[in-house]
Input
Amino acid sequence: MTEKMTFDSFEEFYPYYISQHSRRGTRMVHFFGTLAGAGIAVNAVVRGPRRSLLLAPVVGYGAAWLSHFLIEKNKPASWGYTLYSFQGDWKMLSDIARGRDAQLQQLADEYKASHDIA
Output
């Protein structure tokens, strides 16, 4: 798949996003990286120093991107779909926190099978 896919809505994008996080390890690194980044951001705003706010995206995105290269063996979806990917990360985090990881795995597998994604 060499050409960039297009999506008309977040609802259309989300199954693709999950297919790019088809390994549980990738989802877990995203989960904990996002929580760590959010924790750093909140702490920086509430307690300071404010400049530590700059660490939040480094920790959050750094962990997530490493998981794509080392676990998933793909390119982060955020490189082509920045806003949808940010929204997708938080929805995925919410789904995992609600115990829906098995459903995410099923969604990833079904999307990949129906779109001929390895």
